[in-house]
């Protein structure tokens, strides 16, 4: 399976190591979660202003898949409207379920387009996205301030 190699491709490894998507943001909405089967931990910081993601970052440890997925998440949502974030979340859900999705909405995340074929890795891939979903739900319930 060629895509298994792709899972650990240079793209994935370089995202996992890229410090531009990491760090804390003061006064941001934050949520964290962990994947016990793999030891992955992801904490997201999202700052929303006027219905748009003004800034976002993450802190985390764990496997390459979980860290690269979080880094690409941050890259994708920075500057996006909440509406666009919702579309991204919906497409990630489709991709992770092995269904058709809009590749244009997911950018470099398509490197994981076959993730549904390996359930153990799916958990790693989805960790950051499930945290983002919780943040999104909080914003819908409580507002962004
Ligand atoms: Zn993992």
Give a quick summary of the entry:
This protein has helices at 2-7, 10-17, 64-77, 82-96, 103-106, 119-142, and strands spanning 29-35, 40-49, 52-61. With 145 residues, it is α+β, with helices and mostly antiparallel strands.
What does this structure look like?
By secondary structure, the chain is an alpha+beta fold. It has helices at residues 2-7, 10-17, 64-77, 82-96, 103-106, 119-142; strands at residues 29-35, 40-49, 52-61. The chain is 49% helix and 19% strand. Bound molecules: zinc ion (ZN). Residues 35, 38, 40, 62-63, 65-66, 124 line the site of zinc ion.
Briefly note the structural class of the backbone: alpha+beta
Tell me the strand percentage band.
15-25%
The string of secondary-structure elements, in order, is: HHEEEHHHH
Tell me the strand order in the biggest sheet. 1-2-3
CATH topology: Sufe protein. Chain: A
Q: So what's the overall shape?
A: globular
C-alpha Rg (nearest Å): 14 Å
Look at the structure and give the CATH class.
Alpha Beta
Q: What key phrases describe this protein's structure?
A:
binds zinc ion; three-stranded antiparallel beta sheet; single chain; 145 residues; globular; 3 strands; Sufe protein. Chain: A; alpha+beta; 49% helix
Task: Detail the topology: elements first, then pairings.
Blueprint: H1 2-7, H2 10-17, E1 29-35, E2 40-49, E3 52-61, H3 64-77, H4 82-96, H5 103-106, H6 119-142
Antiparallel strand pairs: 1-2, 2-3
Helix pairs in contact: 2-3, 3-6, 4-6
The structure holds zinc ion.
